[in-house]
């Protein structure tokens, strides 16, 4: 069932290659392609998260001042049921990790990056 547009939480990620980003999020992280109206832009959906993938020619990327361009330490946070299984699955698929597993009082996490370097945190909460 589709989530009504007003029920989505949207996050914009600037990407270098829109098709590569679509492939990464749909193949590895369970997102579904929502729209891809132009080569410069697409959006993918996972639950109530609408991830806007803005290529260099998109209006979202052009509106970003040069001194603020590029990936930072901000990231989307995806909850997984079995972090070790996700790590094995993604490693087998050739996905590069940006951190080791970090454990804290709330759970365990690891960072990966999309093809443009935007960070994704995979998090398994304490049972």
Account of the 3D structure:
The strands form two sheets. Strands 1-4-3-2 form a four-stranded mixed β-sheet. It has a four-stranded mixed β-sheet with strand order 5-8-7-6, covered by helices on one side. The protein has helices at 18-28, 59-62, 83-92, and strands spanning 9-14, 32-38, 41-46, 49-54, 75-79, 102-104, 107-113, 119-125. It is an alpha/beta fold and 127 residues long. The radius of gyration is 15 Å and the shape is globular. It is built from three helices and eight strands, in the order βαβββαβαβββ. The chain has one domain (5-58, 71-125): 2,3-Dihydroxybiphenyl 1,2-Dioxygenase, domain 1. The model has no long low-confidence stretch (mean pLDDT 86).
Work out the helicity level.
Answer: 10-25%
What is the CATH architecture term?
A: Roll
Order of helices and strands: EHEEEHEHEEE
So how many helices? 3
Tell me the total number of β-strands.
8
Low-confidence stretches: none
Mean pLDDT: 86
CATH class: Alpha Beta
InterPro entries: Anthracycline_SecMetBiosynth, Glyas_Bleomycin-R_OHBP_Dase, Glyas_Fos-R_dOase_dom, VOC_core
Pfam families: Glyoxalase
Domain VOC: 5-125
Protein name: VOC domain-containing protein
Quick structural overview:
The protein is of the alpha/beta class and 127 residues long.
């Amino acid at each position: 069932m589709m989530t009504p547009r007003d029920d989505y939480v949207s996050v914009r990620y600037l990407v270098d290659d829109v098709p590569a980003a679509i492939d990464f999020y749909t193949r590895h992280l369970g997102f579904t392609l929502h729209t891809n109206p132009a080569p410069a832009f697409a959006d993918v959906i996972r639950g109530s998260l609408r991830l806007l993938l803005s290529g260099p020619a998109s209006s979202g990327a052009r509106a970003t001042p040069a001194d603020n361009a590029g990936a930072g330490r901000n990231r989307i946070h995806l909850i997984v049921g079995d972090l070790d299984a996700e790590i094995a699955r993604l490693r087998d698929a050739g996905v590069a990790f940006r951190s080791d597993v970090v454990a804290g009082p709330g759970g365990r996490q690891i960072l990966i990056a999309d093809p443009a370097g935007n960070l994704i945190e995979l998090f398994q909460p304490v049972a």
